User: What shape does this take?
Amino acid sequence: MTNAFNKQLQQLDASWQVALGAELDKPYMQQLASFLATEAAAGKSILPPEELRFSALQATPLDTVKVVILGQDPYPTLGHAHGLSFSVLPSVKPLPRSLNNIHKEMLSDLAINNKDAGYLLAWAKQGVLLLNTVLTVEEGNAGSHQKKGWEPFTDTVIQAVNQQAQPVVFILWGAHAQKKSVLIDQTKHAILASAHPSPLSAKQGFFGSRPFSQANAFLQQQGRATINWELSKN
Assistant: This one.
């Protein structure tokens, strides 16, 4: 399984390979590889498929990151998760409820109607790192791969972004994501924190938080190109 990690890392932009290469030999990654191999051997369905687990890094090279949107776990529904936080493949209908709430806030914030679009790759291609803190999950069992080794790896990803010379916007929705603020230099980067877009919490501070316009305002202030948040309909 560690060979699979190496293979996936080699497919990434050189900027990520330099930042993350040393992690693969660390004991926690060896333990994570063993855990995933054991789960697969037991016949459990692990999402997303192996070749998609580093999709967020593949879509957004380290030196192009402008915005980080931090999620928690991949969607546990078969066919939904494809390696980008909050995103689903174009064929998925209806959209997950958290994603619908993101689109409602987008409409309120920027008058952009992404209502039927669930595939967020266009954001990633512009420098929006759509990162989950845990990169796999057992089908139908949300949170099942937490504390198995992914968190130290994705913390290293966050720290690599933090060390970039150019200022970045970190969008942290919910308490889980906000705990990562300790990894971020707030004298250089912007943190936009609010409630999570989940139906359980969206009305407690996500709606009305205007993260998308705020992110673009910060990028503009820093002389960086802003994000076109509009998505083509799937």
User: Anything to note?
Assistant: The radius of gyration is 17 Å. The first strand starts at residue 46 and ends at 47.
